[in-house]
Specification:
The chain is α+β, with helices and mostly antiparallel strands and 246 residues long. It has helices at 67-78, 105-118, 129-133, 141-161, 171-194, 199-221, 226-233, and strands at 6-13, 19-26, 87-93, 98-104. It has one domain (6-233). The chain has seven helices and four strands, in the order E-E-H-E-E-H-H-H-H-H-H. A four-stranded antiparallel β-sheet has the order 2-1-3-4, with helices on one face. Helix 1 (67-78) runs antiparallel to helix 2 (105-118). The N and C termini lie far apart (54 Å).
Length: 246
């Protein structure tokens, strides 16, 4: 029996009560976006050779279109009705829950674009697929830091179990986010060439702000989360074994 796709719905309710609905369907095994049979032809700015990332490992002969840009195309097209500072009521529905929040158009688009870029099949975004599976709409910088570092540490557990060399010092995590800065810069160039309004471009800029902040946060500010683990750390003795409660 074919497993059912994972479905995430983003519903934008605008101030005039009109709505824009984006439905993301993910393959439950690969966590990549499933093709939409009703999708319109891809615009020229999605061509792989257009503003291609310098470190992109793909070739135009195998991938005529940039996977991330192809995922963004319908969002950019329908986002033309939005201005960055427009207030929207965003409703995000997954199999587990529905969340509703009033926010700006650019923040709502930023959350949606982050999801579709992560699940696009771009080789640089493979690390972000587990985070997309447990998607948190409109995540704050602190929430993003927690989720990214926790996801990375869990990945290192699997690396170790499969005989690889784990990176428990998070050294390579900063490199992942630096690569995402390159991806975001290329996406901004693509989207800017196609957009008449600023909402989609500013959403990419917001994504890039998170990517730029993460290397600094990982190196300098991770200790800010230590207090969350203090109750647990007090139960662990120097040997790593649980200490008896006094």
């Amino acid at each position: 029996m074919q497993p059912q796709p994972l479905v995430i719905e983003y519903r934008f309710r605008l101030q005039d009560n009109s709505e824009e609905l984006f439905i993301i369907r993910l393959d439950p095994q690969t966590l990549e976006t499933l093709p939409d049979p009703a999708a319109e032809p891809l615009p020229d700015w999605t061509a792989l050779s257009f503003a291609q990332c310098a470190s992109c490992p793909l070739t135009a002969s195998s991938f005529p279109h940039c996977p991330a840009a192809a995922n963004l195309a319908p969002i950019v097209q329908h986002g033309e009705t939005l201005i960055s500072i427009d207030q929207v009521d965003l409703q995000v529905t997954t199999a587990e829950r529905t969340s509703i929040q009033r926010t700006t158009a650019q923040r709502a688009l930023c959350s949606l674009m982050g999801l579709v870029i992560a699940t696009s099949g771009c080789p640089h975004t493979a690390f972000f697929k587990p985070m997309a599976r447990f998607h948190l709409p409109l995540a704050s910088e602190e929430e993003t830091m927690f989720r990214a570092t926790a996801t990375y540490m869990l990945a290192q557990y699997f690396v170790k179990n499969e005989g690889g060399q784990p990176d428990f010092n998070l050294e390579k995590l900063t490199n992942l986010y630096r690569t995402m800065q390159e991806v975001n810069l290329a996406m901004a160039k693509r989207v800017r060439s196609a957009s008449k309004t600023d909402s989609s471009v500013n959403a990419i800029v917001l994504l890039d702000m998170y990517a730029k902040a993460m290397p600094y946060v990982i190196k300098q500010s991770l200790d800010e989360l230590r207090h969350l683990f203090e109750p647990f750390l007090k139960t662990i003795g120097p040997s790593g074994k649980t200490s008896p409660v006094q």
